[in-house]
Amino acid sequence: MNAVVAKLKGALEFAGQATLDFFTEVGLVTQFMARILSASVRPPYRVKLLLQQAEFVGVGSVFIILLTGFFTGAVFTLQSAQAFQRVGMESMVGSTVLLAVARELAPVLTSLMVTGRVGSAMATELGTMRVTEQIDAMEVLAVDPINYLVVPRVFASAVMVPCLSLIFLVVATVGSFIVGVSVLGIDEGAFMARIEWFLDPFDFTHGLYKAIVFGVVLSLIGCYKGYNAAGGARGVGMATTQAVVIGSISIFVLDYVLTSILLIGAPD
Amino acid sequence: MIHIEGLYKRFGGYEVLKGVNLHVRRGKTRVILGISGSGKTVLMKHMIGLLKPDRGAVKVDGEDICKLDDKGMLQVRRKFGMVFQQAALFDSMTVGDNVAFPLREHTKLSPEEVARKVAEKLDVVGLNGAEAKFPSELSGGMRKRVGLARALVLEPTCVLYDEPTTGLDPITTENVDQMILEASAKLKVTSVVISHDIGSAMHVADDIAVIHQGVIVEDCPADALRQSRHPFVQKFLATWFGKQ
Q1: Domain with B138 in it: what CATH number?
Q2: From B77, which residue of chain A is nearest by alpha-carbon distance?
Q3: Residue B18 CB partners (closer than 8 Å, separation 6+)
Q4: d(Cα A155, Cα B208) in Å, to the nearest integer?
Q5: pLDDT in tens, chain A (268 residues)
Q6: What are the chain A neighbours of B166 within 8 Å (beta carbons)?
């Protein structure tokens, strides 16, 4: 009996501690976001750093987005063409692929790629600066590290991830067109006409809104994990891993939430 | 200049500072001696607002900095320079950019004036011409000297040194001590040095406080430290003077 009570007590303590840790973390992230908001409206406005980060996040990611976008469009076309052939609706391939890419695949896959490349780099860079006291040194030199290090990264991501998502969409369309028309022999006119007929500007804005939110979230998590890293090289490694894992999961969870909200306002 | 009253700080279940009282006189060099884990660095980080105490007050020129917001704290920090144990140079910047960083952030000097001031400060620490080097190309002692040049470039009224001689060879230790003395003498800055290096402390200090297990167990002028009757201070000093 005593053993059962002890086990129950242990389980309750574990659940209680986990809940407490979760809400503590939520509180800290909220506090971090509030500091970012406050620092972003206060001068100095660091345009040079913003452009440097925009180059790192945006220009530096173009190549992997080109590759990912092209092959996503190509593979998705191969798969959907096979399915549509069974019901004799091959002309719907282009519009279906583009709808999926514009609304879902472009923002989600772009953000996942950027999380892997940029979110991890942000966590590593800021984490290394934290454990080698460079962030402390910045504070001692009366420079707000949130304003100097975090704000340019978050804003650059919020702007560049939608741009990359747009590039992904264009390249995926090219990939889909090449495979659909040149490889599978779908009629070019039908392929394009269905796209024009089927797709709405809403489908593109839907994806862009998501990409903006994902850009903010992935950079926020990368910066938060790096900024609060502790425990030397191991701590920086853990911060980087957590930035990628939590960033990726957050993108999927937020994708569902945002889709649910955006579909309420979708045209019929 | 700095007045600390009843300072308490706990990390998790471990109480690091247990009611520290300390006064740093303007224009003097105050050394805080203690063994590793005694709370020296934690105490120093409170002086510049990098940590907030659980209880107690840290007054800089009469103002309790524990009650300041981020903006107010940035203003107070303009009075300070700090030399970190591992120098904490920005590793993505050159030596010149590291020293120029506070000038570019807080002054409207032209690039030529900034370059002139940087060269001047690097000259003071014996590193003239090192502007284009990266921190990774420097030895530990040279990095500390760049850290001091960066700390001094805005001409602060107080410089904090976190274990400035730890891990350095005797010649470099002597140079760093000389650097602290010269900064105090030439620039009239107040200095706070935390260290476990008794020889270096006796060399540079006007006043010495000994911290042990989160409590100041001795606080006296440097030349009176050897007369201390506190058992820990006697044991600590014996590790140095016993060898003399």
Answers
A1: 3.40.50.300
A2: A142
A3: B8, B213, B214, B215
A4: 48
A5: 678 888 888 899 999 999 998 889 889 989 999 999 998 888 889 999 999 999 999 999 999 999 999 999 999 999 998 888 888 787 888 888 888 999 999 999 999 999 999 999 999 999 999 999 999 999 889 899 999 999 999 999 999 999 999 999 999 999 999 999 988 888 888 888 777 777 788 888 889 999 999 999 999 999 999 999 998 899 999 999 999 999 999 999 999 999 999 888 776 6
A6: none
Tell me if B207 is assigned to some domain: yes
The upper half-sphere exposure of residue A229, i.e. CA atoms within 13 Å in the direction of its Cβ, equals 33
Domain assignment of residue B208, yes or no? yes
CB contact under 8 A, B84 and A133: yes
A141–B105 C-beta distance less than 8 A:
yes
Q: What is the DSSP string of A45-105?
A: P-HHHHHHHHHHHTGGGHHHHHHHHHHHHHHHHHHHHHHHHHTT-GGGHHHHHHHHIIIII
* Segments forming the whole domain that contains residue B34: 27-50+70-241
Asked if the structure places residue B190 within a domain, the reply is yes
Q: What is the ipTM of this complex?
A: 0.82
The structural domain count of chain B equals: 1
Test B90 with A134 for CB contact under 8 angstroms: yes
Give a yes or no: residue B19 inside a domain: no
The burial class, CB within 10 Å (0-12 / 13-18 / 19+), for A201 is exposed
Q: Given its phi and psi angles, is residue A142 left (phi above 0), alpha (psi -120 to 50 degrees) or beta?
A: left
Chain B hits for A52, Cβ within 8 Å: none
